[in-house]
Amino acid sequence: MHGNELLDVIFRWAHLIAGIMWVGNSMLFNWLDRNLEKKLRGQDLSRLSQGKIFMVHSGAFYDVEKKLLEPGEMPDTMHWFKWQNGITWLTGIALLVVVYYMNGAAFLVDPRVADIDPKVAIALSATALLTAWIVYDGMWRLWGESNPRKATIASIVLLFGSVFAFAQVFSGRGAYIQVGVLMGTLMTGNVWMCIVPSQRELIAATTSGRDQDPTLSIRAKQRSIHNNYMTFPLLFVMLSNHFGGATSHHLNWLILILVMIGGAGIRHFMNIRYRGEGKQLPTFAWLAPAIASAAIAVAGLMVVSRIEAKPRVRVDYEVKWARAQEIIGARCVRCHSAHPADDVYRSPPNNVMFDTPQQIETMAARIKVRAVDLETMPLNNQTQMTDVERAELDAWLRAGAPIK
Ligand code: HEC
Asked: Which of 16, 120, 279, 385 is 20 to 30 A removed from 127 (C-alpha atoms)?
C-alpha cells in the first residue's frame, strides 16, 4: 500500500478514533447535565452547586458535582476536552483533500451532474466551507442571540438550501461529503470560537472573583445545542458513501434532507427523555416520537430512493456471454484489470478485476448493483457506457450471467 491509499487509511483511522472520542464525550456530558440531582438525600446542595450525580463504573463509584468555584478553589489542573474535536476536524479536512480533491477530483466532480473543471470544483468546495461559517456565525452573533427562533429557521433553510445547491454541482457522494464537512466545520467553529472562549472567560472571572460575562455563556450554550442536533445527521453523512442508492439518486438532496430531519428528531427525543433528578418521560412519550423521526429518515431512504428519473431501457432479445464480455471489456477493464490502462487508477480499484470470465462471474451481483441499478459504474461514466449497454448487461444477468 502506498501514496494516496496509505494517506487515506491513516487519516480515516485517526478520524474515526477522534470522532468516537469527541461524540462519546459530548454524549456523556449531555447525559450528565440532564441527570443531575439538585438535592442530596433531601438536603439542598451548596450555593454554587448545579447538581450532583453518582455513577458506578470500572470498579468504584464516581461522585460528580457540577458547580461554579470560589476564586481560591481553582485547581492546578483543568481538563478541557477540545482536542477530540480539533483532531476530528483536522483529519476530516485531510481526508477531504486526499479522497475528494486529489486524483483530479474524480470523486467530487461528475460530468453527468455538472461538467465543471476539477480546480473550479475544489475552489467552490473550499470557499463554501469558509462562507458557511462566516454567514452562520455572523447571523447568530448579530441577531440570533436575541431572535433565536428566527435564526434557527433561517439556519435550517440555509443548510437545506446548501444541500440542494451542492447536489447540483458536485457528484452525489461528493455533495453528501461536502454537507458533512460543512456541518463538521460549523461544529468545530462553535467549539473553538464560542465554547472554548466562554470557558476561558469563566476561568478568568472565577480567578478574579467577578461575575462571568453572560453573553459568552449564552452564546456557548446556544452553539452547543446546535452541535448536539447536528451530530446524528453528520454521522449519517460519514457513512453515506457506502450507499450509492442514496448518494447517486437524482433526488439525493431530498433523501439527505429527510435523513437529516429524522436524525435530528431522534436526537431531540433522546435529549428530552431525561427530566433531571433521575426522572424520565414515560417511555411512549419519547420513544414513539423518536421512532416516528426514524420513520421520516427511512422514508427518505426507502420511498424517495425508489422514484425513477426516467423509464428504464429494456431489451427483449437474448444477450449472450460474448456480448456481455465485449461490453465489460470496452467499459470496465480500463480500470478493473491487473494492469489498468487508466491514467489515474494504476492498480485495480477495490481489487476488482474483470480480466477472466471467472472474475466476472464472481462479481456478477455487484456488476448488477453498480452498472445496472445505481449506474455508479463506470466511475462518472468515464468510458461512456450507453443505456442500451446497461440494459444488455441486465438481460445477460437476468439470464443467470452465463460465462459460456
Ligand atoms: C475510470 C475507472 C473505472 C471504470 C471505467 C470502472 N470502474 Fe468500477 N471502480 C472504480 C473505482 C475508483 C472504484 C472504487 C470506488 C467505488 O466503489 O466507487 C470502483 C469500484 C467498483 C466495484 C467494487 C465496489 C462494489 O460496489 O462492489 C465494482 C463491482 C465495480 N467498480 C464495477 C465496475 C463495472 C461493472 C464497470 C464497467 C461497467 C466499472 N466498474 C468501470 C473505477 C472504475
From this structure: 16
